[in-house]
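Postdoc handover notes: sequence design on the structure in folder B. Input tokens:
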């Protein structure tokens, strides 16, 4: 992960970050790649939301991302505002092999712009670039849309670890560095994903299998 040299006295500042997008675009895979450096070819679909944390050191500040990975299924869309409320940043994910997922990503962007936190940092991530031969969404089209809407933009692959860390670092650099400007803790009860090797089951059980790059 490319970050600034860290001040030994740097203080961790928490920022709430939410991932939004349709089911099977790879939101959970991106988070697991960033937080744990892991990728699973068979990734279960999120039920409700999952909660993880990871830090990004930036000089005098350590950005502590409090990450909410939301479910993409239609029946959970009404819950989304509960998770993006108070978020300092959001990653809207689409699948480059699915034009429909890109169009739906635009709807998420509009919703965040209307109802999200003031000055929320929004990043658009075109995932699964390892499937270039199946591409339906051109890079230039997505980049132009992102520029027109003031979004960060990267194409990623959770499977190949392409631009995953870079995406989160770019977001961290856009966030305010002062404690007073960080977002308050969420009032949503975390659905914790246990670390590998533990026996504690995740609270967001009942996932359905899907393949996410």
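Designed sequence:
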């Amino acid at each position: 992960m490319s970050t600034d040299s860290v001040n030994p006295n740097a203080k961790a500042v928490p920022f709430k970050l939410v991932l939004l997008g349709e089911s099977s675009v790879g939101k959970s895979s991106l988070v697991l790649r960033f937080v744990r450096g892991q990728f699973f070819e068979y990734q279960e679909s999120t039920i409700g939301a999952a909660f993880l944390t990871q830090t990004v050191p930036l000089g005098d500040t350590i950005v502590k991302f409090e990450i909410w990975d939301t479910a993409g299924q239609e029946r959970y869309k009404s819950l989304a505002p509960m998770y993006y409320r108070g978020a300092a940043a959001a990653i809207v994910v689409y699948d480059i092999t699915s034009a429909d997922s890109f169009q739906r990503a635009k709807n998420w962007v509009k919703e965040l712009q209307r109802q999200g936190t003031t000055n929320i940092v929004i990043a658009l991530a075109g995932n699964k670039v390892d499937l270039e031969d199946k591409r339906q969404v051109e890079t230039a089209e997505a980049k132009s849309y992102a520029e027109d809407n003031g979004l960060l933009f990267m194409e990623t692959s959770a499977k190949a670890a392409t631009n995953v860390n870079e995406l989160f670092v770019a977001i961290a650099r856009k966030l305010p560095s002062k404690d007073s400007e960080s977002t308050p803790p969420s009032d949503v009860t975390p659905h914790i994903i246990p670390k590998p090797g533990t026996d504690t089951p995740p609270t967001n059980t009942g996932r359905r299998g899907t393949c996410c790059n």
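Context for whoever picks this up: Residues 11-210 form a domain with the Rossmann fold fold (CATH 3.40.50.300). Don't rerun without checking with the PI first.
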